[in-house]
């Protein structure tokens, strides 16, 4: 009869915890990318919004050139596109948050985080 050997359960748990930690870190990295893109878009949105408001005011006061109406239309389109993209990023970020919560509840998920936070033997 052949003897079937399995790995040490402690080693399996460590391997699983390491994989979960890699996944957690990847999710944090993606969330950070999403936040960076959102911050950039919000800045451009605010700039375009202010520009559109001043352009509209100039047009209403008769100080604008004929091209100002086209500029306002272009800025309005940009604002709509920025808003849509920000909403998409918010949905993606919420999804990542849900994945992190699920990962925490996954067997070994909380353990991986605790191991990462715990000081290692011989250090300190």
TrEMBL record:
It comes from the Bacteria. Residues 105-124 are annotated as: Disordered. This is Uncharacterized protein.
């Amino acid at each position: 009869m052949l003897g079937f050997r399995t790995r040490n359960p402690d080693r399996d748990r460590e391997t699983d915890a390491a994989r979960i930690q890699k996944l957690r870190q990847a999710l944090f990295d993606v969330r950070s990318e999403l936040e960076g893109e959102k911050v950039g878009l919000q800045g451009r949105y605010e700039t375009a919004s202010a520009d559109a408001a001043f352009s509209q005011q100039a047009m209403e006061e008769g100080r604008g050139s004929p091209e100002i109406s086209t500029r306002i239309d272009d800025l309005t389109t940009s604002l709509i596109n920025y808003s849509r993209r920000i909403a998409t990023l918010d949905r993606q970020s919420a999804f990542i948050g849900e994945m992190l919560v699920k990962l925490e509840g996954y067997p070994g998920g909380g353990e991986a985080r605790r191991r990462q936070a715990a000081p290692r033997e011989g250090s300190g």
